[in-house]
Structures are given as C-alpha cells and as structure tokens.
Amino acid sequence: MIPADYADLAAKFADETVTHAYVRDVELPGAGTLALVTLDNDLDHRRPTTLGPNSLVELGAVFEQLKTRAEAGVLAAVAVTGKPYYLAAGADLSAVGRLATEEDGRQMARLGHDVYGTLSGLGVPTFAFINGAAMGGGLEIALAAGYRTVSAAANGISLPEAFLGLIPGWGGVYRLPRLIGPRNALKVMIENALGNNRAVKGPEAYELGIADACFGQADFLEQSLAWAGRILAEDAERAEVAERRSQKAAATEDDWEKAISAARSFVAARTGGAAPAPTKLLEVLAAGRGKTQQESAELEIDALAELMQTPQFRDTVHAFLELVQKRAKRPAGAPDKALARPVAKVGIVGAGLMASQLALLFARRLKVPVVMTDVDQARVDKGVAYVGAEVDKLLAKDRLAPDAANRIKALVTGAVSKEAFADADFVIEAVFEDLAVKKQVFAEVEAVVSDECVLATNTSSLSVGAMAADLLHPERVVGFHFFNPVAAMPLLEIVRAPKTSDEVLATAFSVGQALKKTTVLVQDSAAFVVNRILLRLLGEITAAFDAGTPAEVADNALQPMGLPMTPFNLLAMVGMPVAQHVTESLHAAFGDRFRVSANLQRLIDAGVTSLWSTDDDGRHVVPASTLSLLEFGGSPSTADELLRRTQDALAEEVGLMLEEGVVQAPEDIDLCMIMGAGWPLHLGGITPYLDRVGASERITGGKFNQHR
Amino acid sequence: MLPMGNMRGVTLPSRGAPVSPVLPARALRDVVFVDGVRTPFGKAGGKGIHAGTRADDLVVKCIRELLRRNPSLPPERIDEVAVAATTQTGDQGLTIGRSAALLAGLPRSVPGFAIDRMCAGAMTAVTTTAGGIAFGAYDVVIAGGVEHMGSHPMGQGAEPNPRFAAEKLVDPDALNMGSTAETLHDRWPGMTKERADAYAAASQAKLAAAYEAGSIQQDLVPVAGRKPGEGWALHRADEPPRPGTTVADLDGLRTPFRPHGRVTAGNAAGLTDGATAAVLASAGTAAELGLPARMRLVSYAFAGVDPEVMGIGPIPATAKALKLAGLDIADIGLFEINEAFAVQVLSFLDHFGLADDDPRVNRYGGAIAVGHPLAASGVRLMTQLARQFEEDPSVRYGLTTMCVGLGMGGTVVWENPHHPEYPRPTPSATEKEQA
C-alpha cells in the first residue's frame, strides 16, 4: 500500500472526519510485543468512527510501518480495536456517496483492498478485537485479520452493503463465506441486510464463527490481549481455534449451490430485481468460487465502481443519511418542543380493533393510564381483553418482563361513559369514518374534558378542520394518522388543521415521538400523503385493468420500481372497501384524477377480497368466477405504457401536493413513502426516482430535487 | 459445628414454633485470606495511566480477576462485597460495593456496600467482613478498596464542621496530612530528614528488587486505558516507582508543607489511582470449596490518637492487636506497614525498637515507592504479606498496619499457614464445621 497513490482521492475529501489509527505497543508475557492499533476519531460515542479516503490512507500508512517493524523482527503480532462502542461503523457514506466519477469509485474500492490486504499480509499474526459496532468496512477489517475476538456487549455487527446499494467488496464477500460457511454468510450479507438492515450482537457473531472468542465487556480488551498471548504462545490454543473454524466453515459444493440459489430467490422476492446490488453481490460471490482472494478483489473492485455510479446507490445513500437518519428525527415544521403539554392520561373513543391497538401502543410507550370507551360494556370488555391478550403474547415472547406486563394491563381500562375522560390530557377517536359521527363524538368529549385536553383524530380521509369546526375550542384538534398494523408501521402523519394551535401541535409531536413513531407534519388535505400517493397509483393500475389490460400485465407493470408488493396485493391487504372509501373522498376533493372503479365496487359487492387466487396447480390466477363479475374496455396497455403513465400520475400528484403545501418539501413525501408504505430506499422515497426517470420533467417541467 | 451454622442454611424453624428464650453459646469461626489482587497503581492526574479510567471499573477488574483466579469459587456463594472509598461521590459513589458487584457480573443475589475509614478503608472492609465471617453471617466475601485521586483529590467536597476551628477541637494542621508528618519530626527531633530520605530510598530499592524477583507482578490485574490522541494501552506495572533513587536524589526536593521542612514528595507516598480486592472465607468454607488459605486472621484492632499526629496511629493499634492475639512484638516475623510518610514509619520502628532497615519490615518496599491510593492500600499490604508468607514459611506471624487521617491507626495480625507449626485442620474438624 503506497499512500501517495491515493493522495488525489484523499485531497477531494478535505472535510472528512478522519478516523485515526493510533498505535501502542503491548508486551505479552512469553509472546513478545503486540502493536495495538486503535481506530479513533477523537469524538464521543455519538459520532461513530467511519472510514473515508483520508482515514484509510492513514490506516494503510500505519499498517505499512508495522509491516516494516514486523519484518525487522521486533513485532510478534498486530491487533486492531476501536474507541468505545465501535470497532468502526464502515465506509464514510457521505464521502462514498460523493465520488463523482467511476474512476474515483474504483480508487476508493481499491484503497480499501490495499489497506486491508496490508493487514492480512503483515507477516506476523494479526488480530481484531471487535469491541462494539462493526459494520460494513468496519467488519471487513476484522475479517482481514487472522484472529478475532468479540465483546459480549457488542451491538451492530453487520455487512449492510446490499441494503445500501453496494456489496461487501472490501473482501467481505470473499472472506465471510469461507469463514462461516455460505449459508450463514448469505444470511448476514443478504437476509439481514435486506431484512430491515438487521445486525447481529457479539454472542451471535461468536456462535456464527465470525469471532473465535467472546469476552465480557468489563475487561474485554484485557482478556482479548491475554487470549492473543495464548494464541501466539500455545500450539494447543491455535489447534482449538483451527478445529472450531473448520466446523463453522464446513460446506460442500452442494451447500454452496443451495445457499446461492436460496439467496437468489430471496432477493427476487424482496426487490423484484429493481435494486442491482444484491444480485451483483451474488454474482461476485459465485464468480469468486474458484478464485484466490486477490482475484476476487478485482471482481469486487469492478462491482463497487459500477454500483457507486448507479442512481439507485446515490438515492439510497441520500434517503438513508438525509431522510431516515436526519429528517425522521427532526420533523420539518414542528413547533418548539417547549410548547408541548404533559400527557398523563390518554382517552380513546372506541374499543374496536384499531382503538385497541392504539390503547396497547399508548400504554406501552407512554406508560400512563389509557381508558377506552364504547357504546356498551361488551365492546369495552372485548377491547380491554384484546390488550390483555396482546400483552400476554409479548410476555410469552420475552419482549416484556412480568412486572412490565402487569403494569401495562393495569394501565388500560374501559368505560361506557365518556365521563372517564374527565382528567385525560389527550383523547384520540377511532370511530367509524363518518364526519357527522366524529363531530358528535368530539362534542361529547369536549363537554367532559378540560379546556387544555388535546383531541386527536385517526381519520384517514376526512377533513380535520371540519371535524373541529363546531367545537368550543377548535384549536385543540389535531390529526394523528397511524398506519396499519399500528405497532409495526413506523409512520405517523400529524395533521395541522387551520385552527390547530402550536401548543396542541407540539404536544402531538411530543406524543408521537414518545410512541417511537417517525412523525411528519402534513396539512389538512384529503388523505394526507401516503394514502393519496398510493391511491393515485392504484387508480392508474385499476383503470388500465378496467380498460382491458390483462391482470398480470397491470399488476406487474411497476416491477421496475421494486415496491414491497404489487398493486393488487396492496389492494387486498388494505381491504377493497377501505380503498374504495378513501378513493371516493379523494374523488370528492380532487375530481377525476381519482377514479372510482365500478369493477372494484362489483368485487366489493360480491364479497371478493382479493383479485388473485391460487388454483389447484398452485398458479397465481384471477378465478373465472371473479372475472365473470367484471366488465372490461377494449383499450389494453402494455406494461411499459402503464409504468410510464403511473410515473407521470405520481409526478402530477406530487407536484400538486407541493403546490398545495400539503408538506414542507419533497423530502417529506419521500420520508412518508419510506416509513408509511415501505417503499425502497433505492427510489429515494419517490421524488428522486420521478426525477431520474424524467416524469417530473415531463409533467412539471422541472425536477423536484433541483439541488441533486 | 454451631447453632449459627444451622441457621445459615435457610432452614429456619417453622413459623410460630416456640423459640427457646435461652440461646445456646456460639463459637467463632476462623477467617482466612484466600487471595488478593490489585490494579497497577497509577499517578494521579491527567497524565497518569488511569486518567481516562473510572474508579468503579478499576474495582470491577479486580473482582473479575479474583473469580478467574479462583474458579472453584461459585460466584453465588459470595455473601458480601465490601468496597472502600474515601470520597464516595461520582464514579466512587452509588454504594460502590453493590454497583461494582453488578458491573462485575456477579449474580444479583450477591449484596454489597460501601465503606470508609480514609486510608484504612480496604483494611476496614476486610476486618468488618471478617467479623461477619467469624460470627457466621458470611461464608465468603470480597473486600477491597479504590481511590482515584486524580478524579477525587483528598478532601474533595468535604465540609469540616466549623466547631473544629471555633472550639479548637483539633489544630487546623491536623486536616493536612503532610503537616501532621512535619509535626512528627517536631515531636521527635531524632527522626531527621536524613533518616526519612534514607528510609525512602530503601523503599524504592526494595520495590525494584521485588519487581526483579517477580513478586509484585503476579498479583496485578492488567488494566487497559485509553487516552485522547493515543488509543488504548495495556498497563501491567505500577507507574509511581522511581527505581534507582538515591538519598542524594532526594536531598534537594521541595518541602511543600512548610518552608525548610522535612517532608518531601520523595519521602512520602504520592497521590495515586488504584484499586484492590481480596477474597476472605471461613476456614471451613475455604476447605469445602478447595480455596487456598493463604493467611489466617489472628486479631485486629483500631485505635485513636491525636489527629495532629495521626502518623503514630499504628503504634497503639498494634499494641492492642498484639494484646488481643496474646502475642508480643517479638513474635512478629513480617511487617507490612503503609508508608504514608517515611517519618511515620520511623516513629513506629523507634517505638517498637526496630532498626530502620530491619529486614522484617516492608520486604517489597512500600507506598513511598508504589503509591498510596488511600482506601485501596490496606488490601495491598495483605496481598503482599500473603506472598511473603509463601516465600518464607519460617515466619509464623505477620502484621499489616497503617495510619489513618483524623488520628487513627489500624493493625491486623495474621498467621502463616505455611509455617510448620501451623495447626492443620483435620478432615473431621472441617466436616464438623460444615455440619
């Protein structure tokens, strides 16, 4: 590794937060001198150590110096560890995301290999002491070392590259399967990465074979060094590690084939081929089978250089850093937190399924009394019983301790009279979607509660302002739109009605954050953000279907977007009557852009819940009985036409939403689609995708994201 | 062996059963020192080896090392964790015995407490829990101490009662340990600065020799420390020692406590960071669990003296402990006396008629060389005495003693199980005790 080779690259990142490589010598009794390298950016635990070009050049130069010392015979071993809580959090994404040319990307990829290769070729035994999070390039440093220990308290051990639009191309894709077997390696690199970016903890990393030894955090480094001393000095210790390694790595040709083929199926199901990275990872892994590590490195460098230039990668990095990590934590347009009022008791109007889910969520997260009301005792009892049963399930799964379970159960009560809300600070309604019903409910609640009590509505399509209009205190009403299932979906759209006060809005944000939801401020406009976008999309697909496009063409036309489910499956999951109801509201508000499908109504009337069904041969079909209910036009579309038409429709809708001021910025729409609909990061949410495919230009004459 | 022994087995008489108003007499149990370890001592202050390490973490590393060194001790058998600290705030606060037990990963069923007798903190942790063992309340305990004087300068946060000054209860100098040492020089003009310096240089030399022989290192727990801009290092040796120090080197040092005084940084213990911990057990439990009995506790005593001359505290404490043991000073073959100040050791030696270079005294050197992390030092003395007992089975009895701020001294007399005349417990006697 010659640092000068990378001087130009490093110079392009003058503002990098450099992770330094500090070296201290440690004498291991009976084993000689170990040079201990600490990766440290000199900042506290809130600023993880990351590896940009300057950091890697410094690390490489340090390894070169150690190599010289090793060659001179003064070093017995080299070890790498990190500052508290981190070995290293991987490549500096903000830097990698800014590599302007393919050549820069190639240099960056080569730099990692050059540095890690220097470590693995030091000529003396090398160790990595994984003291904390080791992600991506951070874990790949450890994989390049000869031996690894891991702290039992380490969190965040992962190779998330496939999730981010890259491959673990600093040797990870080659080394991990040879260390822990192809099946487990692909679990880490593909299933965990694409499964919501899951990471493993220290003990699991040890079990998998990523580490050779696991020590408690209290004296992790001391014990790791003592272990290194034994490895250096004792043949038996080395033999034991070798024996364990061979067990963990054991894999037949057949195991490799099966693991790769299973991963391909997993990737196809997850991404529909819309994200290039996971497929590329499997390609490189398969191509590297008969190759040496150095030969594989060239494949990895090519793959990284290529992927870094893809728009999917750039949009992913943008969505991950700017939306998921930043904007999700600091909602745009939220009022000063200091205005928020304390919430010491919550009321829920209704005791049905949605209301009961809300009761569980509020009690579990806010840990304050929650009272549900409904029209009769039987419904109330059913709601309270639902919460109790859900708590028992969490208890059985060890997600709650017995005392905590008792606490939550005791917090949730029911009543048939709204008098029970008298001392509540926050009352949310989850009753039937009918404006008159909701207005009456709010009037009854207002008669009981204090003047400061916040009234929230979980409506998905009605006007929050209209709901508040006849109240004594309309400023207390705010929209609080959850997504189903409430416990799992991270988004909460917080709706500001025309008269909503800052105090009430601040309280809503504070409650939303206490519920651990990603909160986005939206204006009081029909169906807010996620449902408006989804129904516009569904409307285009249904219209094409109604016009005579075959079901499989219509339902697969959007495959290049890599959405988490096809439109017809989404329709079945949301429920056709609900979708129809919201569409009617949108049609009332916005006219023919939202078309109410007569065919859909026919299905609803006939009690059909899903267009698709599985026939006796296991094929995915629309049953003849369903088709016989429907009427079709004579102007079918091709998949390409439909994709383009949907892109244009989405661009039109997004453009209008921004014009109407439904949200502060396109980023809010993107964040909503990622968190509320599970849309993939490689679309950047949605607006970067619409910019990229030209839809914004075609419809609005410009891009939504001018600066990018 | 005892009624109390039966009570310890949790098999209490059924509720409501009549209890005899006449309690049977109880016998005491022998207490043994099983093992002791300590962190390397570091210089207090930002440049010291432990500057970036928390005090509680230092204790935790000692506790975990004791468990590793004594694998036959089931952690759940530990009945108490007593940890001393003079300043019990910050990382030395939160009932450090209990918090260190939790941080060390001991079972939650193991209790712990914090203890303070200034410099004799760890010594008091040992004697207090030893009393509990003898009484039958505990089978096995961990006792130790810590002082991170870099984070907790002496007297930090203390608010002496104004009556001390207003009513002249003690001389203001009594609250400054260096000044009390100067007062000892005043009281006995024969204890000159030259004698103090010679004693101090010898302490450095003895410690260096002990390191050379490997006597010190075997009871040190390596501690990793991280410094800004330097990364992690591993500390496996004491930082304060200055091997090779000569009397001439000490001659010109400043006398910080009074102009033209006699007490210098060279003939006193420096400000130090460090922690110690030991395992103690009843003799029967040690035998049951296969734990070594490396010293048997014979007697202990604490005594008060004028706070203005706190350094002479070991004299009455030792007299009292010897009396309790039925021993004479001549019966003591090894002394581990804490060297807060050379002059204070000299006062002890003079009182008992021992030479300044008596080979029975501080064979491994003392705090002048190695440092004195206040509440931690007591267990260092014991750990070293245990090693010396092993090395020298000809010695039957030894003692550990130290002076304590506000005018106290503490002494513990120990018996060497390696001595040929040490009564070996017969298997039947052991069984009897467990019954």
TrEMBL record, chain A:
Residues 528-608 form the 3-hydroxyacyl-CoA dehydrogenase C-terminal domain. It catalyses: a (3S)-3-hydroxyacyl-CoA + NAD(+) = a 3-oxoacyl-CoA + NADH + H(+). It holds the Pfam family 3HCDH. Residues 345-524 form the 3-hydroxyacyl-CoA dehydrogenase NAD binding domain. Keywords: Fatty acid metabolism, Lipid degradation, Lipid metabolism, Lyase, Multifunctional enzyme, NAD, Oxidoreductase. Pathway: Lipid metabolism; butanoate metabolism; Lipid metabolism; fatty acid beta-oxidation. In the central section; belongs to the 3-hydroxyacyl-CoA dehydrogenase family. This is 3-hydroxyacyl-CoA dehydrogenase. It comes from Arthrobacter mangrovi.
From TrEMBL, chain B:
One of its GO terms (molecular function) is acyltransferase activity. InterPro entries: Thiolase, Thiolase-like, Thiolase-like_sf_Thiolase, Thiolase_C, Thiolase_CS, Thiolase_N. Pfam families: Thiolase_C, Thiolase_N. Residues 295-415 form the Thiolase C-terminal domain. Residues 232-254 are annotated as: Disordered. The keyword Acyltransferase applies. PANTHER family: 3-KETOACYL-COA THIOLASE, PEROXISOMAL (PTHR43853), 3-OXOADIPYL-COA_3-OXO-5,6-DEHYDROSUBERYL-COA THIOLASE (PTHR43853:SF2). Belongs to the thiolase-like superfamily. Thiolase family. This is Acetyl-CoA acyltransferase. It comes from Arthrobacter mangrovi. The gene is fadA_1.
